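Render this sequence as a predicted structure.
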Amino acid sequence: MRGPYADLIKHDLEDLYLRERARGMPMWRARLRHVRRLLNSMFSVWRADQQWLGPDGGWERRMRGGSMFQDFKFALRLVRKNPAPVSIAIGGLALAIGVVAAVFTVVDVTMLRKYGMDDPASVVSVGSTSLHGWSYWPYSRYLRMRDEATLVRLEASELSKLEFSTAPGADEGVKREALFVSGGYFQMLGGRPEIGRMLEPADDSPGAPLVAVVSHSLWSRTFNRDPSIVGKDVWLNGKAVTLVGVVRPEFTGPVSTRPSIWISLATMDDLTGESPLDARSTAEVDVIGRLAPGAQMYAAQENLSAIVNRLRAEAGATSSHAQSPVILFSAASPISGRDAGESYIAIASIFGIVGLVLAVACANTANLLLAAATTRKQEIGVRLSLGASTGRLIRQMVNESVLLALIAGGLGFLLSIWLAPTLGSILNLGPEVSATPDIRVLLFTIAVAVVCGLGAGLSPARHGARGNVLSALKSQSGVSAGGPRTRLRTSFVGFQAAVSVFLLVAAALLARSAILWSRTDAGFDADRLLSVSLGGSRAGFNEAAYVESALAALRELPSVESASVVQNLPWGWSLRRASVDAGLTSYQVNVNRSDESFFQTAGVRIVRGRPFTREEVAGEAQVALISESIARSFFRDADPIGQSLARIPSEEFRRDPATIIGVVAEAVLTPFDAEVYGSIHRPMKRLTAGDPKKSSSPPGLLVRTSTPARTARAVQDALRRLTPRLPIEAMVVRERMNSYFGNKQMLAWLAVPMALLAVLLGALGVFGVTAFVVSQRMREVSLRIAIGASAADVQRLLIIDSVRPVLIGLCAGLFVALIGAQFTARMFDLSGISPHDPVAIASAVGVLITGALAAVIVPARRASKADPATLLRSV
């Protein structure tokens, strides 16, 4: 130890040691205390001797975090001092951040995560210009393109759903997404096994054994990560398939739906019943490719286009797309490719909505901090008088806001752990998508919390640190803050109201549309119908003979009441529409062809006239039935029976007229579309294979039964006995309708809570600010009551002052909502609902005003009941 006091300190420490020993303290303990005192003394002398540290605290201060951690400690004292307003701010912000984190989790796992491929920038989707960029090609053409391409390596895949079970003889396995792939699929994309091996070119050869690899998720959930599953069998569509490997968790491949199982294309016919794939197959497959090293996308596109044009010339075909039949898109990630623009718009729309909710929460927090800043004027004056700069005060208040936001972010992340899987289940993401927050979501949540803290605290800090020392020291905490602070608080409240009413109007429109869909009478017996679609290759297929045999086989089943053939199945994948020009209005009508028993089978009621006869269907007679809406629109008071279909202003009906023999009740046989009105029914065309007039959409079978779900398996078995190679898909019509309605209702379920959350946050903010402002105006309230104002007068004054900014914001938000309603209607398909629906708008305005009034009435009533004498004595 050095310094002028070193000897004195050393003497005192030795004296203390001797005294402790004389009192009987053990030697080891006395020596330990002596060493500790010596080290503390040496450290104190050394710290005092370091003049270079400066007045700001030097290295020790920096080791302790400097002024930031001191500000955090002071902020925690403010939390303990003002628990109610701070709790409101933290709770509202935590709720909003939790929602944002949950939405980010879902968007991240579905759209932002990579496919897990090697060099994803060189992977492309091979689109066809005749299919508007969709990457589907006949298998035979894919083989020629693969063999002749020089600048890109091509592979193919086909997605299907198969019944999966781990034991033989299961009555009905769970449906799993299975991806049939060509032999070099995994090698090209860089898919690697977690255990076992991947599919190889030898597995995609004729006669190869049935082998498959499964996803890491399926392996974890179903097989509990058992490494011994390699070499064991699972059952797909009732057939044994040997597992040869498990794919690493990061790999999914460039497909929109994540598969659970990968199988070779050569074995697809064994599992699905379709025709074998060979050099003459017309079955379509999804084609992807990888650019050769150094190759450019446009050069590879020209190379493939030249090949396709040559193949078309060899077949003697011509096309309007002959110059560029191939178009390549990037397949690097889920948001790239032909729909990249729509993906970015969807992401921007999603985060725009949740961003508005987050902005309301930030405005809520900022308003409460701004109101709280008015009570700290004396504290600010003292700090200014002691030499603190305005920048230092602003930094302190911003640090306090960031601390509150970080606390809210932590709570929000914990909330998202429960909320994200719930949102994933509502959206039906599928078993392969795990919507669980991870480190990426945690980092995102922290970033959002910091941004919210800065955004919510900067404006209150800037206004709180304004002023001079004298006015700050003279101010009294009970005086209301006016001027810019009041105007800023009003602006925050108005902003909250504007955003809330905008979201409420959008949510109300979606809710109204969902309610309308759910209450709409379909006009036919959807609960008793089973639709059967016939897929696969049609080469050499005698359609008429098969339909006759299929109808006879179905009508023999005990549970089948009736069966009929129809060109476009109710709520199926194919539609037939005709354009109608009625003056200045142009729209479409549905056109369907069926046999004579369709109306009885579907339960479509004939209002007037009669249905087709068997002879008319066999002879393809020029007769038709029209729906009631078409009869009202084009025949008005006249009887349409016996009149010509050509009276409807459509070029198609003028070319192919028919005599109207009946009018049917309105039936919703297709998904809702705002530009489609009415339907026309004509006899089925019975065409044989090779007919040039043959429709590209094969007909389907409609079965009427009291138990469609249980009858589906019997129907499939009966039809497969007729033609085992023809794929059969039986679907309950009500389930398809519920799926469509469920998507619409899901939008409402998501939009309505978001809007109500914004209203809740806004109401909390209005309540907190109103309660604080009322407490600051208690002197004014006591004076008004003392000079004769009634409690009702005081309540009216406080409520009007508090609700005024809400009404201003409501008007602004309503104006924006009315302008944006057209965009909302187009994006979310608000069929049957006007974008300016008065019920939806009135409901939104009513909810917001009710929430605002509930938030201001409680503080106003409490203030009006106060004793003026007690208040005046306490001021």
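Summary. The two ends are 59 Å apart (CA to CA). Residues 483-527+734-875 form one domain.
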